[in-house]
Every structure is written in C-alpha cells, then in structure tokens.
Design brief:
The complex is a heterotrimer of chains A (294), B (295) and C (355). Chain B has 295 residues and is mostly helical. Chain B has a domain at 23-218. In chain B, 72% of the residues lie in helices and 3% in strands. By secondary structure, chain C is mostly helical. Chain C has one domain: ABC transporter involved in vitamin B12 uptake, BtuC, CATH 1.10.3470. Helix content of chain C is 72%, strand content 1%. Chain C has helices at 16-19, 26-41, 48-73, 81-98, 103-126, 132-150, 152-155, 177-200, 202-212, 214-219, 224-250, 260-273, 278-306, 313-332, 336-350; strands at residues 161-162, 252-253. In chain C, strands 1-2 form a two-stranded antiparallel sheet. Classes of the chains: A alpha/beta (294), B mainly alpha (295), C mainly alpha (355).
C-alpha cells in the first residue's frame, strides 16, 4: 500500500500530476507487463461460437471474437447487429445458449457477473447506469468495491482499519478524477450532471475496478467533435499508460478508423469481417451491410 | 373420501371470494405497478356500509347493494385522488407505504363506523339453509356468494374485452409511456383501476360480512388473498382466479385435516407458509411474467 | 455519504482523512460531546415518566436504525420488523427462564437469533427484484406470531413471559429505572456509532449501490445477493437487540404487543424521519414515541367527543391519526424531517441569500 501521509501537498509535488499513477501501481502489482512485440502478443479474451436467441429472435449466431493484449479492438455494425448483446454475454449478464468465453485460458462463461468483474473484465453501458444518488467520487469509490480490503465487522468498528483503507481508496479515486478532468464536479450528485460528464464518470468507475480488459459501449454517443477528441484521448491514454486492451463499440467511423488496431464487423448477429482498418474499409460485405446490397 | 370432496367443494365456494379479492389486487398492480395493500381494509368498509344499509336503515337488499357499490366507487375515487395522485414521480417505496398506512387508516375508520363491535347481519340478506346434493351439504350463502363472484369477474372480463376503456386499460397494463403516446389518458385509467378494484373489494366485503360477521377480523381474508395473488403470478388475472380457488380449497383442507394436528389458530398461518413455499419453488407464480431487464 | 455537499462555511480539508470526517470543526465536536453528556444527565432532571419515555425512545431508535439499514440504505421493504423485535425479546425471555443465563450473555444472542431467522425467511425473496421481500416478511410475521403463541411449553403462549433486568455490573444495580436508562443509552450510542460507520464503509456503499441501480452493481463487482442478505440480517440484528432492551425495561414480554400495525408504523415513521440518514432514523423513533404519549393524553378527550364510554377510541385514534401524519409527510415532505432540518441549516448558513 502506498504511504498516505497526513499532508497530501508534499505527495502531490513528488508525483507526476497527470493522474492514474496510483491505479497503475495497483494494477502492476498484480500482473506482468505486456509484450511490446505486436506479433507475439497473446490472446487475452476469447469468445467462441457464441449463439444466443430471445424467443425466435436470433441475436447472435456463432460469433467468434479474440482480444489480444494491449490492442484496441472496435466492434462495429449497423443497429440491431448484436454488439451490445455480445458485450452482455462476455460480461456474464446474459447467458448464451451455446458458446464459451475464455479469459487467459480460463473458462468464465457461467460465472456470475460480479465474479467476472473481480477477475478484471469491466464495462461501461450504452445508457448510463450510474448510482444516481451518490456523488461522482462516491461512484468511483463504489467501483473499487472488489478491491477494498476490509470486511463488514471491521467496517463497523471503523478505526483504524477502515479509516486508512478509505483514505487510500479516496486517493485512487482522486487519481482517476485527475486523469478524466472531473475535478470541478467531484462533489456533485451524479443525477444532476450533463450527459457527457456522466459518460466520463462511467468510464472512471470502470477504471476503478482495476480492469484487465475494458469493454466500452458507445463511449462517444451524443458528443460533439471536441468531446469526442477528449474521449478518444482518454481511451488511447488508458491503453498506453495502463497497458490494458480495450474493446470499443462505436458508430463514428472516423474515430474507429483512427484509434482501432483491429475491427470486427457484426451484422444481424453474424460476424461478417475482421481485420485491420485498411482491410475493412474496402471490404465489399461491410459496405453492403451499411449501405445495402446492390 | 367424502370428507375430502366436501372440503374441496366448500373450498371452491369460499375460494370464489378469495379469487375476487385477488382480482382486485391484480387490477391495480397491473395498471400502476403499486401493490395495494389497502384493499384488505376496503372490504371492511364495504361490510360496514352494507350493515348500515340493511340493519341500521332497514333498506331492501338491492338498494343496499347499489349503495354499497356506489360507496366503493366513491372510496376508490377518493383514495386515488387524495393519496395516490400526489405521489407521482416518487420512488416505488412511497406508494407502498401509503397503501400500508391506508390499510390502517381504513381500519380505524371501520372501528369508528362500527363502534368497535362485531356485528352480525341479523337475518342475512342471502337466504340461509343448505341444499343437499348427494352427500354434500351446500350452504346457500356460499353458493349464492360464489355465483355473485362469478358474475362480477365475468363482468370485469367483458369490460376488458369489449369496451374501449377496457382496451385502454390493457394497453396501460403493458407500458405507460406507450399508452400516453397513443393518446390514452393514463391518469384516468389509474382512476378507473382504483374504482373497479374498490367496487370488487367492497362486494367481497359484503359477502364476507354475511358469512363471517361484520367486524375487523375480515381483513385477514384480504391478507390471505395476497398469498393467492403471489401464487397465481402478480400480473395475471387467470392466475389470480385459479390461485384464489386453490387457496380456498387449501383453507378447507387445512381446517379438515391439518388443524386438528396443530395447536392453536392455524387458518391464518397456513396460507402464509404456502406463500413462503411458493417463493422458494416458483417465485414468479403460476402465470407470472418474468421481466427481462435490459442495460 | 462521505462527501458532504452542505458544509459549514470556511472549512477545507488538508488530507483524505479529514475529508471523510463527519464532525469537522471543533465547534461541532464540542456540541456533540455536550449533547451526549446532556443525555446522560437528563434522567436527573426529569421524573420517572420522562425516564420511561426516554428509555423507550432509545430502544426504538435501535430498531429504527435497523429498518433504516434495510429500507433506507438498501431499498428493500420489510413489513416484519416488529415480529423480529418480538423474537429478540422472546429469545432473552426463553434463555433466562429455561437456561438461567445472564442477561449480558443473552443480549448478543438476542441479536443473532432474529438475524438468522430473518435471513432464513428473507433468502427466497432476496434473490429476486421487486416487492417480494415485503410479502416474505408479511408471511414471516404471521408465522412467527403463530409459533410464539402456540409453543406453550417454551414460550408460555399468549400469557407472556417474565424477564429479568440485567445483573449487577461494576457495582451498578439496574433495578432502578434511571440506571437502566443509562445502560440503554450507552448501548444506543454504541449501535448508532456502528450504524454510522456501516453507512460510510464498503458494505454501506454497496447497499446504496444496490438500491440505486442493482443491475449495474452486479456487473461492477458487487454481489447483490450477499449485499441484500447482509442488509436484512444486520437490520434484524438491530431489531432483536432493540426488542431485548425494551422487554427488559418492562420486565415482561407478550407477543400481543407486536401486531402488523407496529411493523407498518416502523416503516411509516421511518418515512417521517427521513430515508437514508442516521439522523432520520433517530428523528423517526423520537416522533413515534412522542406521538404515543400524545395519543395517551388525548384519547380521553376523544372518548368524550365520541360520546360515552367509547372504549374503542384509543385504538381508532392511533390508527387514524398516525396514518394521516405519515401520509401527509409523504405527500408534502417525502424526504422527511431530516431533509427539512438540512434545509433549515442551509438557509441559516446562506442567510441572507435565498439559496
């Protein structure tokens, strides 16, 4: 545990004030660094033969997705293609009728959602699902839940165990708030914030879970160009600084082509293409899916 | 064997009233998503109004019936306007606490109306005596009560199927926002739901007052009907009816077979043990809907 | 919660430890100390009647804190709280009568037994979302009342049981009401301390997360089944201890005192006090007990008003009057007395600005 001194101003001067350093210390204590050679990167998350149907509606049909270490993977496709459904299956919220999800070669398909989150698979939501009664800082500290280290009895007694632990978690949350530039709203109740800020708080909460892999569901929906650039900068920084792979569902082709390492295209529950952005741009099946055949 | 068949038939008769009460709960829950605990006390008020009409003012039966139903409708309007409508927009906890407090409020009003005593109806308004069918001894009160329940539930189902308002109510059962976009006045539908439910509960109260005596102990039947609602599924009319009959049969079988084995007053407790069993085995009920939540 | 939006003027934090303090300025700490000392000195000022009211307020505060944890923090509706108080009372009575145990040993058991019984009843309902816990606790109420009323060999049925006050501890004899009040006050302060810390600890945050958005909470690493069961269990623990202390005050317990009405008043006066805050629970319990005393005073007038020996007036008065108060609060001030007090404090701080 990093030393929390009673006077935080001294600590600030020593630290690189960009943010996320405490979080990176937490993450790196628990695992090894990524292999910098792109060709030799291992597969971190593998979803095989995922099929799920709601009644007669086949949402996903034999979809296979692989996420390698340290890359940014974009999942694109027209509306109704099943992208959010795929994310829900991977994070354990839906149970697929067929197929398996493997994280680091461990089968996580039938684990419950909170266990999967503890293993490091964190996600954001398309329609924001924040804890509306809590403030921004409290939301992010609530995201730290699996990694807070005291039980409820010591929590009720509070001094000295929970006291120190709560201060430490607050320091990590402030790290994330610094990074996401949310300082000016850190005390406001989330229900009163604007949409763009709420998306950032959502991202901060997902970061607080010490993700091993981050799944983002339309993080740039409803934003103008400036905000999109900010969000893209955050995503790239997370990818490079914390060295975690990011899976991105996005509709804005410009963003996708610029920041994604690989792209997967879904259409009506089927995976129709996969590859680097240059290949996808010219792929006739992709163009037909978006613009219609013929 | 004879005992069993007797118990089942008698249970069906009293189950009709439980089915009526269960339907009154389901009507409001389907429309407003608020579970109206207060209907258990509305039936006490209905029993007292009927008592006043018959015994205190010596009115003929049909007039008493009409006055009680009108009183139930007024009560429904009053409850919805004064207590439920100001709570729009508050979290689900607020209307639940209000219905619970309404149950106690109406109990208090019932005590004041009845001067605290259990009253009988004197000569009951439904004919006394029983018919003999084979070895069965069917009390006329129960049979007429069952017929009345069937008529009321049938009228309600006709209302839902045939009338425009009923169609509007069925849309509101599905989705409030969609109904509003279709031009249906959702607030008025809520009012109709409360009126219908109060009329049904008051009619059930009349029948129960006749069978069990007018007093405060009547709301035990209302609480037992809650077990019936859960058994049938919170959002299903067919489930409420079938479950009401089943709970009636269960009560009769309990009185015949289980009550001699256990000490004390088991008739209140057994339906709730049944409720806990349902929650373990089939928590959404027989015909209940499991809502898939999307993120 | 840990971030206090309405902070006294001029306070700022130098480190994270200060940021989460509840009583920040020295003035507040002194006022808190004075308040606690005042509550300890109060029995020397008021007479026996006052001491009895104060003891009951403290005992019911503990129970109300339990319900605040279940309903206010975790959002689960429980209509069986009075029944679990009864279980706590009867646990102490049974252990004292049949096993001759010391009161001090019985007290934690009086908390643990309702906790486990509550978890047992709540288990099926807590897996599911919606009102199912309300139904399960309704059923639990009737089953508990039945078991206690009819298990004559153990609980003496509806005749009630005699309980003994705690034995002599550190030379203090608890037979006198005043000493017993001081004991109950001490235990209340300890339980309030535990509840406040629970609210700002990891489990308390997960309660609020489950209340606000339980689907998101599950995906964000919070085990909602565990959280809901712990909320219900801890709430019932508080209820049991509250029952034990109340019962030892009267030195007699009877299950007839715990009807469905009392559970509904618990919920109702929690609404009056305010959801989601410790102060709300304390305010709710205080208002309830003061209303009780008020109704005892007013009932003879009501009897005269209704004419003659209206013996039913007391029962009707409580039912009608309390429910009207609760409904009026829900309609006009849904966040209760605690919120109104916050508004008063805020208007004082911001004077002369309106907001």
């Amino acid at each position: 545990m990093a030393e929390i001194t009673r006077d935080i101003t001294k600590k600030r001067e020593q630290r690189y004030s960009y943010g996320l350093t405490l979080l990176r210390e937490c993450i790196e204590k628990k695992r090894l660094m990524t292999n910098p050679n792109v060709k030799e990167r291992k597969v971190l998350l593998r979803a095989e033969h995922i099929s799920i149907a709601f009644g007669k509606l086949q949402a996903l049909n034999n979809v296979m997705v692989e996420v390698k270490e340290g890359e940014i993977l974009a999942i694109i496709g027209p509306n109704g293609a099943g992208k959010t459904c795929l994310l829900n299956v991977i994070s354990g919220f839906y149970h697929a009728q067929q197929g398996d999800v493997y994280m680091e070669e461990k089968r996580i398909t039938h684990l419950s959602s909170h266990k999967i989150a503890e293993l490091g698979l964190c996600r954001t939501f398309q329609n924001i699902a924040l804890y509306t009664g809590l403030s921004v800082t409290d939301n992010i500290i609530a995201g730290r839940h699996p990694h807070i280290g005291y039980n409820f009895v010591t929590g009720m007694i509070y001094f000295p165990w929970a006291n120190k632990e709560e201060a430490y978690q607050r320091a990590i949350a402030e790290d994330i708030i610094d990074f996401l530039e949310l300082e000016h709203v850190r005390g406001s109740v989330v229900g009163m914030l604007a949409y763009g800020l709420r998306k950032r708080v959502e991202l901060g909460r997902a970061l607080a879970l010490e993700p091993r892999i981050l799944l983002l569901d339309e993080p740039m929906a409803g934003m103008n160009l400036d905000e999109k650039e900010d969000m893209a900068r955050f995503i790239i920084d997370i990818n490079e600084f914390l060295k975690i792979p990011i899976v991105l569902i996005e509709h804005d082709m410009g963003v996708v082509m610029d920041i994604a390492d690989r792209i997967v295209v879904l259409d009506f529950g089927n995976m129709i293409a996969e590859g680097v952005p240059e290949e996808i741009k010219g792929n006739p099946k992709v163009i037909a899916a978006y613009l219609g055949a013929g | 064997m004879e005992e069993t068949i007797k118990s089942i038939v008698l249970g069906l008769c009293s189950g009709g009233i439980y089915a009526l009460l269960a339907v009154s709960y389901v009507v409001i829950y389907k429309s407003t998503r608020v579970f109206p605990f207060s209907q258990a006390a509305v039936l006490i008020i209905g029993a007292y109004i009927m008592w006043y009409c018959l015994i205190a003012w010596h009115l003929p039966i049909w007039l008493g019936f009409i006055i009680t139903c009108v009183g139930g409708a007024i009560l429904g309007v009053f409850i919805e306007r004064a207590f439920m409508r100001p709570l729009v927009g508050q979290p689900i906890l607020a209307p639940i606490v209000v219905t619970l407090c309404l149950m106690l409020f109406l109990r208090g009003i019932g005590i004041l109306m009845g001067k605290g005593d259990i009253q009988g109806f004197g000569e009951s308004f439904l004919p006394v005596g029983a018919w003999k069918v084979g070895f069965l001894h069917l009390p006329k009160i129960q049979v007429y009560g069952f017929i009345l329940c069937t008529v009321l539930i049938g009228a309600l189902m006709l209302f839902y199927e045939k009338t425009r308002t009923g169609l509007g109510m069925r849309v509101v059962h599905e989705d409030h926002v969609v109904a509003q976009n279709l031009g249906i006045n959702v607030k008025r539908i809520f009012q109709y739901s409360w009126i219908i439910s109060c009329i049904i509960a008051v009619a059930a109260g009349m029948l129960l007052g006749n069978i069990q005596g007018v007093g405060l102990a009547l709301d035990a039947n209302g609480l037992i009907a809650i077990a019936a609602v859960l058994f049938g599924g919170l959002e299903s009319f067919a489930g409420a009816i079938i479950a009401g009959l089943a709970i009636g049969i269960l009560q009769m079988l309990t009185i015949t077979y289980i009550a001699p084995l256990l000490p004390g007053e088991t008739t209140m407790m057994i339906p709730f043990v049944f409720l806990l069993l349902i929650l373990f085995i089939k928590p959404y009920g027989l015909f209940g809907l499991v809502r898939i939540e999307r993120l | 919660m840990s971030i206090n939006i309405n902070r006294p003027c001029g306070t700022f934090d130098r480190n994270y430890f200060q940021a989460k303090e509840i009583y920040r300025t020295p003035l507040r700490k002194i006022l808190l100390a004075l308040l606690i000392i005042g509550m300890y000195l109060l029995p020397f000022l008021v007479g026996d009647y006052g001491i009895s009211i104060l003891t009951l307020i403290c005992a019911f505060t503990i129970g109300m804190l339990g319900l605040q944890i279940i309903t206010g923090y975790c959002g689960q509706i429980s209509i069986g709280h009075a029944a679990f108080m009864g279980v706590g009372m009867y646990t102490v009575g049974i252990l004292q009568r049949h096993f001759g145990l010391n009161f001090w040993v019985c007290l934690p058991l009086a908390g643990l037994v309702p906790m486990f019984i509550g978890m047992m009843f709540g288990l099926p309902a807590l897996r599911m979302k919606g009102l199912y816990l309300a139904f399960a606790t309704l059923a639990a109420h009737f089953v508990i009342v039945y078991v206690i009323s009819n298990w004559r060999s153990v609980t003496n049925g509806t005749d009630g049981m005699w309980m003994k006050r705690p034995d002599v501890l550190l030379g203090i004899d608890f037979k006198s009401d005043r000493n017993y009040y001081l004991l109950v006050l001490t235990i209340t302060i300890i339980m309030t301390y535990l509840a406040t810390n629970l609210a700002r600890s990891k489990l308390g945050r997960s309660f609020v997360a489950v209340r606000d958005n339980d689907i998101a909470a599950e995906v964000m690493g919070i085990n909602i089944a565990y959280t809901k069961i712990m909320a219900f269990g801890i709430g019932c623990f508080f209820a049991g201890i509250s029952g034990a202390l109340g019962g030892a005050y009267y030195e007699y317990v009877n299950i007839e005192w715990f009807g469905l009405d009392d559970s509904i008043w618990y919920l109702g006066f929690l609404v009056v006090g305010g959801f989601g805050s410790i102060f709300g629970a304390i305010a709710g319990a205080t208002v309830w007990k003061i209303m009780d005393e008020f109704s005892t005073l007013v009932t003879p007038l009501a009897e005269i008003f209704l004419g003659g020996a209206a013996f039913y007036a007391s029962a009707a008065f409580a039912l009608v009057f309390y429910s009207l108060i609760i409904i009026v609060f829900l309609v006009f001030e849904p966040r209760g007395i605690a919120h109104r007090w916050e508004m008063v404090k805020r208007s004082y701080r911001l004077h002369p600005f309106p907001y």
